[in-house]
Each structure stands twice: as structure tokens, then as C-alpha cells.
Amino acid sequence: MAARTVLHQADITRALTRISHEILESNQGSSDLVLLGIPTRGVLLAQRIGAILDQLEPGSVAVGELDVTMYRDDLAGQPTRTPSPTRVPAGGIDGKTVVLVDDVLYSGRTIRAALDAINDLGRPRAVRLAVLVDRGHRELPIRADFVGKNLPTAVAERINVKLIETDGEDLVAIAEREATA
Amino acid sequence: MKHLLSVRDLDRDTAVGILDLAEDMADVATRAVPKLPTLRGRTVANLFFEDSTRTRLSFEAAAKRLSADVITVSAKGSSVSKGESLKDTAQTIAAMGIDAVVLRHGASGAARVLADSHWIDAAVINAGDGTHEHPTQGLLDAYTMRKTLHGDAARGKSLDGVRVTIVGDILHSRVARSNVWLLQTLGASVHLVGPETLLPLGVDSWPVTRGTDLDAALAENPDVVMMLRVQSERMQAAFFPHEREYARQWGLDDARLARLAPHTMVMHPGPMNRGLEISSASADSARSVVLHQVANGVSIRMAVLYLVLSGSGAGA
Amino acid sequence: MTLLITGARLPDGTNTDLVVKNGVIAELGPGLSALGAIVIDAAGLQALPGLVDLHTHLREPGFEQSETVLTGSRAAAAGGFTAVHAMANTSPVADTAGVVEQVASLGEQHGYVTVRPIGAVTVGLAGERLSEIGAMAQSRAAVRVFSDDGKCVSDALLMRRALEYVKTFGGVIAQHAQEPRLTEGAQMNEGALSSELGLAGWPAVAEEAIIARDVLLAQHVGALLHVCHLSTAGSVEVIRWAKARGIRVTAEVTPHHLLLDEQLAAGYDSRFKVNPPLRRSEDVLALRAALAEGIIDIVATDHAPHPIETKECAWQEASFGMVGLESALSVVQAAVVDSGQLSWGDVARVLSRTPAAIGQLAGYDAPFTIGAPANFTLIDPSARRVFGLEQLHGKGANTPYLGRELPGRVVATVHRGVPTVLDGELRPAEEVANRVA
Fold first, then answer.
1. Residue in C17, C149, C302, C380 annotated catalytic
2. What per-residue string of b and e applies to A19-51 under the rule 16 or more CB within 10 Å gives b?
3. Which of C 404-423 lie inside 8 A of B, CB atoms?
4. Residue A103 lies inside a defined structural domain of this protein
5. Which of B42, B105, C12, C306 is a plausible cystine mate for B49, CB 3.0–4.6 Å?
6. Which structural domain, as residue segments, surrounds residue A128?
7. Which one of C195, C279, C280, C310 makes the best mutation probe of the B interface by having the most chain B beta carbons within 10 Å?
8. Do chains C and A touch, with touching meaning 3 or more CB–CB pairs less than 8 Å apart?
9. Do B36 and A71 touch (CB under 8 A)?
10. Pure H helices in C191-276
């Protein structure tokens, strides 16, 4: 099935740069800021945003990883998911502003799981959400604070996010969902 | 993974995966809320036909940290002690709606029989069957070895090249069997030491080397020395003459402890007979990882419970 | 009642018709006819003399939930047998004239097979005092085979006395060769596999040592000895040595020890748990060769029915034994006939003539001759069937052959001139009982 590219490498870089600026602006600087990426690609995006923030305000932002597998509500219905490690930066999250970073915001269930996971890790001052793509179709009252691109989609479509670190190229494409048996 | 019956069902990647998952589970214990909601609404039945407080508590703690509900049926003071059969007990608890059975049973193969039967369709975790296997003990031992050797860099690693010496009553030990097969899968080499009466017939076909001389085995500077519990009823059955002779020949006493290489770790599945197979000084020495084994047991059992209770094959 | 069997192939390979009248074979030869006879078309069928089992557990009296003389007799007839020897481990034990007479008369009443009780060697099978061997021998049951089967007569002096004493009455001791101390708690053949499975090992030497002792005792006192269910290659060698020295010993093997090996224990399916245990594949091959060579004299089923709950449990909690009467002939065919090791003539010897001779059961020395008692079975060796519950006619379903394809099928069985099986179906109990009456 033919895929339609909606974001190229330059678009992704621009979007992440804009998100970085927006984060700084809303946080009024980078103090007490913790970026937590949601595996797999959210982690890479968090690292990229962290790198941009480090250029803007060196040495102040902490980046970690937050695995939400054990908090999902769909474990029984799916093939067994292998969790990834959770890595909280040394300073912890208590009293910090945590920015969750993921590649695609869809039903909101992953973010719901992430909020539960954060709840068990400590008590941040605030939790924000940054996503590269918001494709709509929310099933929970959750919205993103920082969005790279709003992308209206049909449920039958799928969003493919590719990043250089894992896929050898940067792009976001829309494809028809393959028929499942 | 539908059941965990034998470590022989685990290939290398799966085994390493379980150890890695246990690393994540161990991290949970260090957090503000040391609990995960993962198995909320699932029920785990601990079905213990043999008394084993430590294994039962370990599974209970694991299930509770994953937010599962736990029903415990143990030998003392239950219908199990009144001779109720495995089938009837299993069906009774299954009728209450359970998702997994953690089974400890005195008969080898009991977990396999329960899993292969059509009496229940819950997942079955073997928590020790007769003198056959104790898979979660094997896994927690492998985890403890890996963690002791590699620390925080343990994730993803096997036990390639690690040399393990297991000492004592191999014949009656389910711990030894689970260790032998799992350690082989993970790339470690295993040396068995004990009196000829307690080395199983046909052990030469196992992927191990064997000997009877503990001092010779320790002189090889193994990475791990695992002392097995010796049960006094073996004496009555003429496996060895008496405790003093056993301790002299195959006990990890203070003199042998002093001769161990600096890197050698001492393990024991517990409960220990201090002064028989292991001296107090050995058990309490800095190189003893006995208490780590206990702590790691909870992490391993969390990982195993997660694997059998998640996934599309489970529950339904 | 008259029967006309047309076109049957005899064990010697010749084809013939048979007329059966008044319980005996009245005519033999081609082109026979008989007015008013029940006609059995035996074209393509193999005729065998009525099978004689020297080792059957009928469980009555005492364990009627497992089997009764009636249900065991029906199972036997369905398997082509016309005589069974009922082991003594009932409750009460068959150690008195009263018990053996009761068992024999129940068999006589039901009529499916001749039931020959085996007497216990020791009182209550306890291995301490000789039971009343003389009274049992002289009873209406005329017991000739004595065995503590299930338990070994392990005391050497008691075994010697038994071998000597039984000579007085022309009997034979059938020994269950199992050294008890070497097999305490034993679960399966001892070897690499038992060590892996964590099941207590049952060493071959526990069987071989008893057989070696007993053949020497039999030689010393000049007695007959029969050894039950050989299971190891080493046992075969001991018997071979004894026979070469002229010791009067006979040996039996079960169908399952000719077909199945210890690997089947690997799944802990307790239907494979038997006493003696299934052994290595080398042992299976040695047993087959020994049967073909005549070192092992007979095949006996060790038919051991158990209630289902004693098998639906963990291996070491399960009872020993499997039912065997219904499957015996098919299993023998699969193990040694289809491979060419035994002819049908050999089968007639090891499953009829020789066991009858050991049990001193008359009427089986010259089958298919005019005037001989009409005990025979007709089988279709070319049939193949998936062995299922419908083939089982006793109370026990503890057989590992369920769902397995086996060759051969019993089409008809005739006991003393009375059909017990026709067209592959057991005849009703009332019909069989009335006709023999």
C-alpha cells in the first residue's frame, strides 16, 4: 500500500526546535525540567529535544526514559509486550516539571498509563505532554501541550514515524492499515 | 509463555529476556510506590502441597507487587493435607476463577501433569516438583550470578564462560537440575561435586563435569560455589555414614572458605544447615550472596508472573 | 450348537473349513457343510488356538470397582482369549481353597473364558509363611500356578521352601522378580532419563539379581520355576544361561514390554507406569529377539485394571499397571509379527500352547484336530484400527494405546464350542452363560 510522506527530515527538525522553544517559554526557562521519553521513539525524540534545549540553555535539562508497559490496560488482549527499562534522571521527579515525550498521540491510553507510572515514581510539580504528531481519535480526556503537527487521519490509516537512529531516515508517513486476518 | 514448567523449555533469548525483565522488576522495589498495577484483576493461586514458607512468601510478594489477587492453599490445615487429590484441589480453586496456579508438589512432574490435563485452563508455574525442577530458583540463581558479576551492566548479558560448582545432594535436588539445564543454556559451565551415592546414575550424559573431591574442585577457582541442602533422612538411607563425615568431605567449612579465590561467590538455595554443608562464617561472609538470592527471587517471580499472565494466550 | 467355519487359515498356513459340535472340533477339511449351523465366513482370516493368559488381574473378590470376573472375562474374550489365570492379589488374597474355588466357579458361571486361579505362595502375600498350597492344589479349582505377583518372594529360604513344597503337588512358582530394598519408592527404569525426570530409579539389577538367585535355587532343589514379566536384556541373559545349564525355568514377557520403552515416561503420563517399568529401547529389542529365539517362552498380559482416579494424578502417586487383554494380540502383532520375527504359528505357541502347558491346562496341546475342545479365535491381521474406548470391555480404561493405530482385529472367539465374539462383537452375557450351562 502506497504511503504518503507528510513530514520530511527538515520538517521534523523544525517541529522539534519549535517544541523546544515552546517548552522553555511555558516553563519560563529550563530549571527543574525533566524530559521523559516513552519507548521506543519517544525516547529518541526526548533526547533530540534535550540536545536542542542544551544548546539554548546549557547543562540544565535532564532526560530520562519512562516505560509504561506494566501500566497498560490492554496486556491480556495483545501478544506479550517486552518492557523496556525505566530510567529516571538522578535528581528524580519530585517537584520538577516533567515533559512526557512520545511520537504519536492517538487514543491517549499510552499517556494515561504514563501518568499512572509517574504517579508511582514521585510527585512532580507539573506534567506536560509533547508529541511529534497528534492524529486525533482520542478515547480519553487527554491533550498535548506541545504538538509538532496536527494530522487528521482516518482510523483505517496508520502513521509511520521513522527516525534516523532506528530506521536510518527521518520521516512521517500515512499508510492504509494492512488488512488483518 | 503459557506456563513455566521446566527451564528446559526456555531458549537462550527467552532466558536472558526473563533476567532482563527481572532487572526492571527489581527497580520497582526502589521506587516511592514499590508496586505495579499490571496484574490488577488477575488472581494467582499459590497451591502448595508441600510446605515451603520462603517460596510461598516470595511468590505472594511478587504477585502483590504486580497488584494481582492471591489465594494461598498450603499443606497445613487445608484439604490438601487431608489427602485431596491434585485434580480435585485444582478444579476447586479453578472454579473460583483463577488465572494462574503456582504449584509446589512433592511428586516429580506434577506441574506438567496439571498443565497437560484438562482439569483447568489457568497458567501453571512450577514452584518445585519433587526431585525434578524448581525453575524460578534456577532463574533467580542465574540472575544473582549475573548481577554479582556485572552489576548495573547486567542487562542483555548471558553467563558465557562463568564456571559454577554445585556441591552436595545432586540426586535429590530439583535446584541442581534447574541450575544445570539453565546454566548450560546461558553458556556457563557446571561442575558437580558430591559423594558417588548422591550423584545421579546417568549424570555423565548431562552437560556437566563431575567429581567427588571438593578441595580439588575449589582449587580450580570457580566463579560460583553453590552448596545444596543435605537432608538428614538421607543418612538413614545409607547415602553417607554420618553428618560429621559429610561436613568433612563436602562441607564449605572455614578452612575451605579461606582458600576461595577473591572473586568466588557462595550461594545456597536455603534453608541452610549451618555447620553441615556450610559453616556460619561461609554463610555470613561478604562473598555469600544468599540474601541477594532471596531478594532476587521476588523480582524473578514478578517477571515470570508477568510473562504467563500477559499476552493474548493468557486468561481469556 | 453347531458352528461351521469356512475358509480359515490355520497357524501352520493351511486353509480349511471346520465344523464344531458339542464343544469339540468335529470335522476338518475343505468344502464342509453342516445343517442348521451358525456359519462364520473366515475367508482371509487367521485362525489361532484360543489364547491363554498366564497373568491376569481379575480383582474379584475385593476390588470389584476395578474389575470383576465377569468384566475381565469379557475383556479376555474380546481379545481372543479362552482361558486366563487370575492372580492372587485379591482381597481376601487367594491363599485358601475357598477363595480360589469361588473365583473358578464365577468364571465357570459366566462362560466367556476358563478362569484358572493362581494361588498365593505366602499367606496374605506377606512373604512370611507358606499359604495352604496343598489345599488349593487339591481344591475344585485344581490350582497349579502359585505366585505372590505384585510382590516378590524375596526371602531366599522361603523361596527355596516354596519351590520344593510345590513339587509335592506338581505345581510351579511364578516369581515376580523384584528385589524390594533396591526398589523402595522406585518409579521408572533407572538411568539417565530417570535422573533427568527426578523419578526414583528402578534398577535392572533388582530384577536380574532375583532371577539369578531363583534359577540357582530351582537347580539346587530340582524344581520348576516360572519368571513373570521379564523386562531387561540382562534378565534374558540369565534365563539363557539357566536354560543352557538345563535348569527347568520358563519366562514370560508382556505385550507392552515388547512395544514400549522408557522414553514414554518423559511426559509423566501415568498410563505408562507399570511394574516392572518400561525399559530402554535396547531392552525392548532384546526381549523381542529372546521371544523369537525361545529363550522367553510366553507372552502374558499382566492385565491390571485400575479406577481412573488412580491414574489421574502425578506419576509417583499413580498405580502401577495397564489393561492388556483387549490389546494384547494387536500389540504382539505390531511388535514382533509384522516385523517377521514371529509367525502366526509362533504366536499360537507363545500365547496358547506353552502358557497352557505351564498352567497345566488341558485341551490346548493339539488344537485344530478332530475331537479337540473347540477353543479358538479368528482374527483379521490385515485390519488396522485406531484403538479406542469401544475396544475396551473390562472396567479399566488405563491403557496407553487409546488413540494409537494398531494392527489386527479379533473377529470371532469360540470357547468350548460357544461363540463369545461374533462379527467382532461380544455376545451377550446371558447367551454365553446359558450355552455353557
1. C302
2. bbeebbeebeebebbbbbbbbebbbbbbebbbe
3. none
4. yes
5. B105
6. 4-23+31-72+86-176
7. C195
8. no
9. yes
10. 192-197, 204-221, 233-244, 255-259
C339 shares contact with chain B (CB less than 8 Å)? no
Of C187, C268, C309, the CB nearest to B113: C268
Domain containing residue A15: CATH number: 3.40.50.2020
| ipTM of the shown complex | 0.93
Structural domains in chain B, sorted by start = 7-134+297-309 (3.40.50.1370), 135-294 (3.40.50.1370)
Nearest to B131 among C198, C314, C317 (CB): C198
Q: Is there a contact between C198 and B129 if contact means CB atoms under 8 Å apart?
A: yes
Q: Do B201 and C194 touch (CB under 8 A)?
A: yes
pLDDT tens, N- to C-terminus, chain C (437 residues): 899 999 999 999 999 999 999 999 999 999 999 999 999 999 999 999 999 999 999 999 999 999 999 999 999 999 999 999 999 999 999 999 999 999 999 999 999 999 999 999 999 999 999 999 999 999 999 999 999 999 999 999 999 999 999 999 999 999 999 999 999 999 999 999 999 999 999 999 999 999 999 999 999 999 999 999 999 999 999 999 999 999 999 999 999 999 999 999 999 999 999 999 999 999 999 999 999 999 999 999 999 999 999 999 999 999 999 999 999 999 999 999 999 999 999 999 999 999 999 999 999 999 999 999 999 999 999 999 999 999 999 999 999 999 999 999 999 999 999 999 999 999 999 999 978 65
Burial class of A132 by CB neighbour count within 10 A (0 to 12, 13 to 18, 19+): buried
Terminal CA-CA length for chain C: 12
Please name the CATH architecture into which domain C50-358 falls. Alpha-Beta Barrel (3.20)
Contact, C23 vs C416, CB < 8 A? yes
> Cell for C309?
482416579
Give me the amino acid identity at C70: L
Beta strands in chain B (DSSP E): 43-48, 69-74, 100-105, 123-129, 163-167, 189-193, 209-211, 224-227, 265-267
C148: annotated active-site residue: no
Select from A70, A72, A78, A112 the residue whose CB has the most chain B CBs within 10 Å, as the one to mutate to test that interface: A70
Q: Is A77 within a domain?
A: no
CB C231 within 8 A of CB C276: yes
